[in-house]
Specification:
Blueprint: E1 13-18, H1 20-23, E2 33-38, E3 56-59, E4 62-66, H2 67-76, H3 79-85, H4 94-103, H5 110-125, H6 136-145, H7 149-168, H8 176-186, H9 192-213, H10 221-238
Parallel strand pairs: 2-4
Antiparallel strand pairs: 1-2, 3-4
Helix pairs in contact: 4-10, 5-7, 5-9, 7-8, 7-9
């Protein structure tokens, strides 16, 4: 179904299709972006103790993390890594499937909420505008609408997802109504004034929920425990 880049055709790897296509918010021109996690038996280490093997490799539309880096980022609450746990990979290996299965019940923590909120705070500070130059089509849309529609779509997506995390204590899922609205946002359907109002309103809702419910989420103790157990026991057995 997917023509995976050759660099990700590793014998022990999980590979996910990420970006807009992961969330069902892509259009026909959307890129195919991939994130992979490779499991190299020669690079066994505990990511909570040893940083030496926590590596990341980037090249165009590919991001490849070592197994240890993936685990370490999950503990930090990295939103992109948490997304992987709750979406099906386009290819996987046995050790990768086992690791995701083990950590999944423990991944939603206070660190995840903090990471989401930190990102939203920064984007609001920037006025909902990206800090790097966009491609010509997005530049033209920015000049026409006064806002970067794709960027604002993802800002709202993160608000919705964090709101669900705080209210349900589980991973936020975009329902059909939100998906439809976000696709309309990406298409540039709404005026600048309307979108600024919506963005600020959703941010205020998220901010209030964060203050009220963030401390009700678990800390990372349980996640750290299952990760350490996996590296010391499950991973060793897998060798």
């Amino acid at each position: 179904m997917y023509n995976l880049p050759a660099a990700l055709n590793l014998p022990l790897a999980n590979v996910w299709l990420v970006g807009s296509r992961m969330y069902g918010l892509h259009n026909e021109d959307s890129d195919y972006d991939y994130t992979g996690v490779y499991f190299d038996l020669a690079e066994f280490c505990d990511p909570l103790v040893d940083r030496e093997k926590t590596k990341t490799w980037d090249n165009n539309n590919l991001t490849l993390h070592s197994f240890a880096k993936f685990a370490r980022l999950l503990v930090k609450g990295n939103a992109n890594m948490v997304d992987l746990v709750f979406h099906s990979p386009v290819r996987s290996c046995e050790v990768g499937r086992k690791f995701v299965e083990v950590v999944k019940p423990h991944v939603i923590t206070q660190n995840v909420a903090s990471a989401y909120m930190g990102y939203l705070n920064e984007q609001k500070r920037r006025g909902f505008k990206p800090s790097t130059p966009q491609n010509p089509q997005r530049k033209a849309q920015l000049e026409e609408l006064g806002y970067d529609a794709k960027y604002l779509m993802h800002f709202l997506r993160l608000n919705y997802m964090l709101q669900d995390v705080l209210l349900t204590k589980t991973y936020g899922v975009l329902d059909e109504a939100r998906l439809y609205f976000l696709k309309e946002v990406r298409a540039g359907t709404f005026t600048h004034s309307t979108m600024m109002t919506v963005a600020n309103q959703e941010y205020e809702v998220t901010e209030k929920l964060y203050a009220q419910y963030k401390d009700e989420l678990p800390n990372t103790d349980s996640l750290r425990h299952v990760i350490s157990d996996f590296f010391y026991f499950d991973w060793v057995r897998a060798r």
